[in-house]
Amino acid sequence: MQFFDDSLHPENMEKVVITVAPYGPEWMPEDFPEDIPVTMEEQIQKAVDCYEAGATVLHLHVRELDGKGSKRLSKFNELIAGVREAVPEMIIQVGGSISFAPESEGEAALWLSDEARHMLAELTPKPDQVTVAVNTTQMNIMELLYPEYLAGTSLEHPAIQAAYSEMTVPAGPAWLTEHLKRLCQNGIQPHFQLTGMHGLETLERMVRKGLYMGPLNLTWIGIGGGFDGPNPFNFFNFIHRVPDGCTLTSESLLKNVLPFNTMSMAMGMHARVGNEDTIIDQHGKRFSSVQQIEQTVRIAHELGREIASGQEAREIYRIGVQYDSIEETLLANGMAPNRQPGQKGVPQRSDIVSTKESKLKYSA
Q1: 37, 67, 72, 175: which has the fewest C-beta neighbours closer than 10 Å?
Q2: Compositionally biased, Basic and acidic residues: which spans (predicted)?
């Protein structure tokens, strides 16, 4: 992304899109009973509460009545339908892992099979987005979960810690290509969850080959354990490489959530909160998803930025938009065109002008 002299002025920034992840699949309800919903009615109401507080994107997982993460697509369908009816303008973003919680102590924490995850493209009613990982990656969420924050929670148990320490995110090229194809065929937008620069580079290569033709909505995840660590320079280097036409949201863990969201919003980007990312504030006190949204809204206003409404967030994310060619995709996402045969030097964006734009340009 490019920054000019007035790039940090709020009048030159889009409104803030706040994503909330209030279903924290790594926690059990008893870890934070005031904030982790269990019944379907509670899960729907949580979405309503978050929307009314200022969040316009709902990162959605589902629980069974025993409190464990659901792997039944019928439960996802039920929650999506309930949220769609209760808050129709909210962007519904299904977590592409479905649920990674181990079924019992000592069991591995695993994503479902590739084919089961492909079925997210067939959810009814369909969500607006499904999060998509790029490149298979280690996801040791225990690396930065310090013991003092785990005391008295389900993650304090050694067997559960061992299960989560060995977790990986499967996202190889064959699965990724097929998954994107199925999502786009069903009119569902992928929201790319990127663990570092390598993921961004792989995604760009896919765009340049025509394997994905649509808006690039990105989340940078700085949680360590195989992902980028919560080092601001990791984030800034990533920002520097992100094309100008993309959206970018920051995601981190525990006490790192607030500073990264503040940096992100100060630079014109977007924020993610919720008990999937943290259940504590900067003082180590329990901090609900709604409280996190309210804090984010306050900080955004102090920075001079307005909060996007549901409809405005849909426009910023270009929900429902797909492109017809590689060239159109590159141009729309602020990327330089592909090098043409015999072309020397660095390709310039001005080299790619559609027929319609050419007519408008030269008839003016």
Answers
A1: 72
A2: 354-364
Mean pLDDT, rounded, of the chain:
92
Tokens 């990312």 belong to residue? 277
CA atoms of 21 and 310, how far apart (whole Å):
16
Q: How many helices (H) and strands (E) does the chain have?
A: 13, 10
Q: How far from chain centre, in Å, is Cα 276?
A: 12
Residue type for position 293: I
Closest CA to 216 of 231, 201, 230, 235: 201
**Angle 127-133-139 (CA atoms, 0-180°, nearest 5)?**
120
Residues near 184 by Cβ (< 8 Å), separated by ≥ 6? 190, 212, 213, 214, 322
What is the set of domains in the chain, with CATH numbers? 15-333 (3.20.20.70)
Q: How far apart are CA 133 and CA 192, in angstroms?
A: 6
